[in-house]
């Protein structure tokens, strides 16, 4: 039950600070909170054992044109 209280407390804090979020479930044992703020994406997972895992994706500041889509397919397709 403590895990749920921590999750709800976190969500309430986000709402109090007017930070938008989205809930997701990727793993069987976790609920993910996805938070997009300028230049960053945070994935905060609340695990069923009470632990919290945070992964942050930080923008390098670069912008790319449509040609960059070729890189996507060249590097990451099977």
Low-confidence stretches: none
Chain-averaged pLDDT: 94
Q: Name the structural class.
A: alpha+beta
Rg on CA atoms, Å: 16 Å
Global outline? elongated
Strand order of the largest sheet: 1-2-3-4
| Beta strands, count | 4
The biggest beta sheet reads: 4 strands, antiparallel
Which H/E pattern describes the elements? HEEEEH
**Amino- and carboxy-terminal Cα gap:** 43 Å
Assign a percent range to the helix content: 25-40%
Work out the strand percent.
25-35%
Count of DSSP-assigned helices = 2
Write up this protein.
- By secondary structure, this protein is an alpha+beta fold.
- It is 31% helix and 33% strand.
- The protein contains two helices and four strands; from the N terminus they run H-E-E-E-E-H.
- It has a four-stranded antiparallel β-sheet, covered by helices on one side.
- Strand 1 and strand 2 form a beta hairpin.
- The radius of gyration is 16 Å and the shape is elongated.
- The mean pLDDT is 94.
Could you outline the blueprint of secondary structure elements for this entry?
Layout (H helix, E strand, L loop, with lengths): L1 H15 L5 E3 L5 E8 L2 E8 L4 E7 L9 H9 L2
Antiparallel strand pairs: 1-2, 2-3, 3-4
